[in-house]
Structure formats: structure tokens, C-alpha cells
Amino acid sequence: MASNVPEKYKTLIKNNKRIDGRKLDELRPVKIEVGVVPSADGSAYIEIGNTKVLVAVHGPKEMFPRHMINEDRAVLNVRYAMLPFSTSERVRPGPSRRSNEISKVTRHALESVIFLEEFPAMGIDLTLDIIQADAGTRATAITAASVALAHAGIPMKGLVAATAIGKINDKLAVDLNGPEDNFGQTDMPIAMISTNKNITLLQMDGDFTKEEFKTSLEMAKKAIDPLFEAQKAALQKYYE
Ligand code: CDP
Fold this sequence. Notes:
- This protein is of the alpha+beta class and 240 residues long.
- The chain has five helices and eleven strands.
- The mean pLDDT is 97.
- It binds cytidine-5'-diphosphate.
């Protein structure tokens, strides 16, 4: 836990309720909208609690820069960016170590489900703009990204959704919000494929015992179902 925790965030769980009233295994409210950027080939807007992300897909299209071409399959280019106004402290525009890392892990989390080999020598650009950040931005962006890819008509083996399991006040909790992430002990973002729940991303900031790790995987498997439902419902609603 951070050493200078404000008094109001010292107790993150009271009577099994969290500071925003949620139960330990409860996700924040989820809202997904498809087709919000008409100029893109695919797009999705997502809100998970106060975290808000806009995702746009361009492609499959001619690959640029040319030296990055893969003659056997499409290349997925991911650009994650926190907009300057997305946090209470202005974020400096342009790439950073953190945004490069998140772009890379997001690419890994998604490319195994995309039939990239159907588009040799082409590129698919995926833009993830964090409009408002209240923890879980990479998980939220990944959840919206597979919806935007589906909207772009890109063939995939399944959808990918993500959430985070954390440890706060020594208890495991699903989908941390900002103060829980900042002042809790552990944050483990995890992404899974809808069809088989294979894990495509797993990171950890902090630590878990072996038992806690096992339990958090089980919690993630359960918590992720409503996200898959929300993804499918958003796509269905768009095409109705
Ligand atoms: O967003 P995510 O949990 O995937 O990544 P993180 O690097 O663990 O960041 C956790 C949270 O810290 C973000 O979601 C933001 O709410 C906050 N943050 C911030 O306020 N300013 C930054 N420059 C980076 C992160």
C-alpha cells in the first residue's frame, strides 16, 4: 500500500462493501456503444464506472510503414493514449513508456483471436483513447477493442474482454476503481477469450499468495461473463 494514504482511503472495505458501495465480486456499471465514429471502419465507446474509452479501427488496409509489412499476415498496430484531460493531473501528450507498454500488451491480448493470416501484407490500426481514467484503462480498452474489431468486420475466433482482480485491505476484489488501485495492495489485469476463457493477458502490480492467485483467477472467470454479455448485446443492438 502507498505510504501516504489519505484518511478517507485507509478503509477501502466496510461491512463487505467497497467505497463505491459495490460487493467484492461486483463489476462497475458497464456501458458499450458500437459505431460511434462513422469515419472509422469499426468503433466502440465504453464506460466501466468512471473509466471511459473510445476505440477506433482502421483497416485491414495497405500497411504503413512499408518496412513493417509481414507478407504472411496482417500487422496489428495498437496505439493507446491517455488524453491530457483524462486524469486529475494533466497527462503529457505523446507516447510514454507506460503507453508503449500498454499498446504492446493490448496487441498481444488481441492478436491471437484475429485471423490475421486472412490479410497478408496488410495493416489494422487500433486506436485506444482514454477519455477518463479511473483505473482499469487497459482492461476497459481491450474490452472495447474486440467490439470495435468485430464492428469492422474483422474475422475473429471470439471476443476478448478484460477486468482486474485486486487486493484491497487484505481482501480480493473485482474491477478496482481509482482509489482502490492507488491505495490498495495488488492489481492484476486479466484478459480472456469468450469461447474458451483462455487468458491472453495477465499482469500483476503487487503480489498474491498462491492461494489468492488461484482464487483471483476463479473470480476473474466469473466476473468476465457480464462483460462478454455486454459486448454481444452492444453488437446486437447496433445491427438490429
Ligand atoms: O489504467 P490501468 O489500471 O490499466 O493502468 P495503471 O498504469 O495501473 O494505472 C492505474 C490508474 O492510475 C489509471 O487508470 C489512472 O486512473 C491512474 N493514472 C493517472 O491518473 N495518471 C497517469 N499518468 C497514469 C495512471
